[in-house]
Amino acid sequence: MARRVWLSLVMLTVGGVLMVVAQFAGAAPDRKGGIFKVGVAGASVQIDPQVSYISTGWWLEYATAAKLYNYRSGGKLVPEVASRFTVSNRGKRYTFFLRKGFRFSDGTRVTARNFEYAFDRATSPELQSPAASFVTNVSGVHAHAMKLVVDLRSTDGDLLSVLAMPFFQATSTKLPLDREVSDVTSMSDLPTAGPYAFTVNDVNRLMSLRRNPYWTPGPGRTAPRNLAGVDVYWNLDERTAFEQVRANQLDEGPIPAAEVQNVANQYGVNRSQFWVKPINSCIGLIAYNNSRGVFQGNAPLRKAFNWALDRTAYDGPSFGRSPWTHLLPPGAPGSITKPRLQPYAPTANVEKAFELAAGHLRDGKITVYYRSSGSQNQAQAEIVRRALLSIGFDYANITMKGFAGGDIYDMFGKGGSDADMAVSLGWCDVEGSPFMPFGGVPPFFPDLPQYRDKIAAALRLKGNARAAALGKLDLDIMRNVAPVAVTNIYNNRYFFSNRVDPRSLKYLRVYEDWSIPALGLK
Q1: pLDDT given at position 22
Q2: Nearest to 381 by CA among 424, 348, 335, 415
Q3: Cα 241 from Cα 235, distance rounded (Å)
């Protein structure tokens, strides 16, 4: 199991009807009940709803939270506690009408005050919640029994997606405004209104979920809730936890690097016990220096290198990466995931690359920065050298300069750098705009005056229209300008015991993990 710190919320905050849940199995498990046991090699995560800001925490809260709108199977935002909403005051007032029937795990009823209280805690100076940065456009929140009014400073078509974050779930007024809740020994210590509730949180040792006894199926309450509960054991030895999964003593756990290929050979990939799924927000890339040198103003050569690169060899056999050839990561609104629509091929097309590069090598000299640490980084540098040789550069005219760790970013970004390209870089969308870098930021990205107005127009759209416009621009920019050579996306790897029913696995791309309510044991 490879869980990670949450790097980006663009998948939640951009595009109100973003498709985010991929359902890989359509059948319900035969068995109800049982405790799903997870082993983690790392430390525990925060579970306070206004403090937790890590994907593992949000994965757990998908099972415990009740929200105004939530992501469900089929991949869109649907009403949960809210039955509907209206928009008034020229798009700056949202009024949500709440359903009856939701209760916290201590038995108290959910009202609009519980959502108002989520905002109170999110903006509390003492609590210092990371949620505060997502509601700077909110000018006021008012609760009236089962009606919640949210006033905005300016129109915001993404409000529903923001409210679908775990930060803004129905929050018990038992939780203090000025401090985080971490110690849990019963459901009443941290009441939640979703299908499950936290019953134990022994930091760095054990976290337990059990069914919320006051949650019953009804309008807005449609989760399957197959498991009786989940136990997460923290700070385990990686090898020990791996062997416990194989012995069905744990149901999910880590895979030592040396065992990845063996596991894939034994169980296959995305079939039963070993699963590989993409990380939403990050891409690997080879950056061109678009401010000077051989790639400046040289789209034919930039495109030629994209065709010359063998991404399948570049990414290696670890299942930690998958070939990718365009700018939008797989979870971004409008991102094209079908292989036949990718702007470049995963394997090299040397003939096409050579034809594109002909007459565009300029003085035939090129300097390549690469990461010198680790065998994989050095292997990637050699693959890049072979691609350059295939489009006409002479071996003697390719200068390779190695840098340790993150020094490559500092050296490549300095004014006057002699680099023409830099290998083994990565970029994550952490600002909420997938085209944020394309404003002429040297030396990574060229100014794109021909796309500036189109990008701005696309970002003004909402929902599916924006997603479609961004997806089209993504492919157009890569095919026509090729400002970088995108190499890969990054993957999470998951290893399950034989007790887990693979038909119950539903992957939540937003939280980059599996739906706990849908999980089932054999």
Answers
A1: 32
A2: 424
A3: 10
Interacting residues of 468 by C-beta distance below 8 A, sequence separation 6+: 334
Alpha carbon 362 to its chain centroid, in Å, reads: 40
Tell me the CA end-to-end span of the chain in Å, nearest whole number.
20
DSSP 8-state symbol, 521: B
Break the chain down into helix, strand, coil percent, rounded to 5. 30, 25, 50
Q: What whole-number distance in Å separates Cα of residue 177 and Cα of residue 163?
A: 19
Mean pLDDT of 50-71: 93
Considering the entire predicted model, what is its pTM? 0.78
Secondary structure of residue 486 in the 3-state scheme: strand
Amino acid identity of 107? G
**Residue 442 pLDDT more than 50?**
no
Give 462's pLDDT tier (boundaries 50, 70, 90).
confident
Both structure tokens of 185: 């020994």
Most confident of 8-22, 61-75, 315-329, 391-405: 391-405
Residue ranges of alpha helices (H) inside 77-167 are 112-122, 159-163
Distance CA 309, CA 390 (A): 9
Q: Tens digit of pLDDT for each residue in 330-389? A: 877 788 888 889 999 999 999 999 999 999 999 999 999 999 887 788 999 999 999 999
d(CA 276, CA 286): 24
Instruction: Identify the residue whose tokens are 């070939």.
Output: 323
High-pLDDT (> 70) share of the chain, %: 90
pLDDT higher than threshold 50 for residue 440: no
Check if the beta carbon of residue 459 is closer than 8 Å to that of residue 498: no
Phi, psi of 342 (to 5 degrees): -65, 140
Q: How many CB atoms lie within 10 A of CB 140?
A: 12
Distance separating alpha carbons of residues 436 and 445, to the nearest angstrom: 10
pLDDT recorded at residue 334: 84
Sequence-ordered list of residues with C-beta below 8 angstroms from that of 56, at least 6 positions apart, any chain:
3, 40, 45, 513
Q: How far is CA 159 from CA 30, 58, 434, 473, 489, in A?
A: 38, 19, 18, 24, 28
- For 286, list phi and psi in degrees, rounded to 5: -110, 120
Rounded to whole angstroms, how far apart are CA atoms 233 and 85?
40
Beta bridge partners of 144: 147
Beta-carbon neighbour count of residue 375 at 10 Å? 8
Does the pLDDT at position 121 exceed 70?
Answer: yes
Q: Where are the alpha helices (DSSP H) in 67-134?
A: 112-122
Convert 506-520 into a string of H (helix), E (strand) and C (coil).
Answer: EEECCCCEECCCCCC
- What region, left, alpha or beta, does residue 21 occupy, with left being phi > 0 and alpha being psi -120 to 50 degrees? beta
